[in-house]
């Protein structure tokens, strides 16, 4: 049984943290690993760890990137503080046999520093591209990649898209794909009634990158059909979207709902899901759609092309091709049996690739590979 020190960066067990915690809970239940955690602050995640009776430390370690203007002095200070924090962790854990230090994101060198002091293996798990959010490395990307390659025994990514992105900068023998697990709670794919109004769901940031205003353009050409779009999200364009809905008299067709952190409980209410974002390194949302038998229309970008088999278990739409989205929706509205057929295929695709069991077994095998 491996003793693994996990570094988690988010204060809440969602997204990347939710993924790795699903894996950890599965592997602990199977008595394959013994986890210890380092988290940055108090919050929902800490409550989760307490509930699970996991050992943890709160260490306010720093990231190796800047969001705003780059500052070399600040970067050096962050590195020095991380070294002091790593020494503190070493003193606390030096008498425990830590097999692996597992950094659950590609945003900090803190895990590498700890692994060097403890003489343990180190794993990075890359789940996003920092450039997408405007992050800038404190030191050059070349230095960061060299440091990561040299001091990491393995580097995991969560998708074929990220694998292809990093395969020329990370040693191939270290690079492994570990898909994010999506649990199967609240699944009911036999929900469709031919008498029902067709229900479409959109989940995502209401920012320009996700193109939420296109929802009003899509809906405006389809008002002769019996459908509605429920929007779950927050962001800079939320008020603008509300205005557009009113201006185009679409209040009966598009509803902005209160954002929900746990969306799983309501997915069974929907038949079709829209994913309009430009940058998708994994796209957990469309897999959550698929596990509920929802037909997905997603942009032909990022990792979407590795999840959706176009016209078989969903639809891939070239970026900003609103007319094609409208055409595909018309086809589905006019042939409701197609919704059920493609939805069932989507569920089967999820079941074979993205369950907690499948992901955790892949992770376990990678952990024990030399």
Strand order of the largest sheet: 3-2-1-5-6-8-9
Catalogue the unreliable spans. none
Total helical segments: 13
Overall 3D shape: elongated
Helix content class: 25-40%
What radius of gyration results from the CA coordinates?
22 Å
Describe the biggest sheet?
7 strands, parallel
Strand content: 15-25%
Total strand count, please? Answer: 15
Structural class call reads alpha/beta
Compute the separation of the termini in Å. 15 Å
H/E element order: EHEHEEHEHEEHEHEEHEHEEHEHEHHH
Mean pLDDT: 89
Q: Any overview of this molecule?
A:
- Helix 7 (214-220) packs across helix 11.
- The longest helix has 22 residues, at 72-93.
- The model has no long low-confidence stretch (mean pLDDT 89).
- This protein has 370 residues and is of the alpha/beta class.
- The chain has helices spanning 16-29, 44-52, 72-93, 110-118, 141-151, 160-166, 214-220, 238-247, 284-291, 304-307, 322-334, 336-353, 356-368, and strands at residues 2-7, 33-39, 55-58, 65-66, 100-103, 121-126, 136-137, 154-157, 175-177, 198-203, 227-232, 254-257, 272-275, 295-299, 315-317.
- The chain contains 13 helices and 15 strands.
- The two termini are 15 Å apart.
- The strands form 3 sheets. The chain has a 7-stranded parallel β-sheet, sandwiched between helices.
């Amino acid at each position: 049984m491996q003793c693994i020190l996990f570094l988690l960066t988010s204060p809440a067990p969602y997204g990347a943290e939710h993924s790795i915690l699903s894996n950890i809970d599965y592997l602990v239940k199977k008595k394959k690993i013994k986890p210890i955690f380092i988290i940055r602050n108090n919050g929902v995640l800490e409550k989760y760890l307490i509930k699970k009776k996991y050992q943890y430390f709160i260490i306010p370690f720093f990231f190796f990137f800047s969001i705003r203007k780059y500052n070399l002095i600040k970067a050096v200070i962050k590195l020095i503080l991380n070294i002091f924090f790593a020494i503190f962790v070493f003193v606390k854990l030096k008498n425990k046999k830590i097999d692996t230090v597992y950094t659950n994101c590609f945003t900090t060198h803190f895990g590498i520093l700890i692994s060097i002091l403890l003489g343990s293996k180190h794993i990075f798990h890359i789940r996003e591209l920092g450039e997408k959010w405007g992050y800038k490395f404190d030191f050059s990307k070349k230095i960061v990649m060299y440091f990561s390659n040299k001091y990491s025994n393995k580097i995991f990514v969560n998708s074929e898209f990220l694998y292809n992105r990093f395969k020329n900068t990370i040693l191939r023998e270290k690079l492994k794909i570990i898909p994010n697990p999506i649990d199967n709670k609240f699944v009911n794919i036999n929900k469709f009634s031919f008498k029902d109004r067709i229900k479409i769901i959109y989940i995502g940031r209401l920012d320009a990158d996700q193109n939420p205003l296109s929802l009003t353009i899509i809906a405006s050409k389809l008002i002769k059909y019996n459908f509605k779009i429920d929007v779950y999200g927050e962001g800079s364009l939320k008020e603008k979207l509300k205005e557009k809905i009113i201006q185009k008299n679409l209040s009966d067709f598009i509803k902005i709902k209160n954002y929900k952190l746990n969306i799983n409980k309501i997915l069974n209410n929907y038949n079709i899901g829209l994913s309009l974002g430009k940058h998708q390194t994994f796209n957990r949302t469309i897999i959550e759609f698929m596990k509920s038998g929802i037909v997905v229309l997603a942009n032909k970008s990022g990792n979407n092309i590795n999840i959706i088999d176009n016209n078989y278990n969903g639809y891939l739409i070239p970026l900003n091709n609103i007319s094609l989205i409208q055409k595909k929706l018309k086809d589905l509205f006019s042939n409701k049996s197609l919704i059920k057929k493609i939805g069932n295929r989507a569920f089967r695709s999820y079941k074979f690739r993205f369950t907690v069991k499948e992901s955790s077994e892949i992770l376990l095998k990678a952990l024990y590979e030399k």
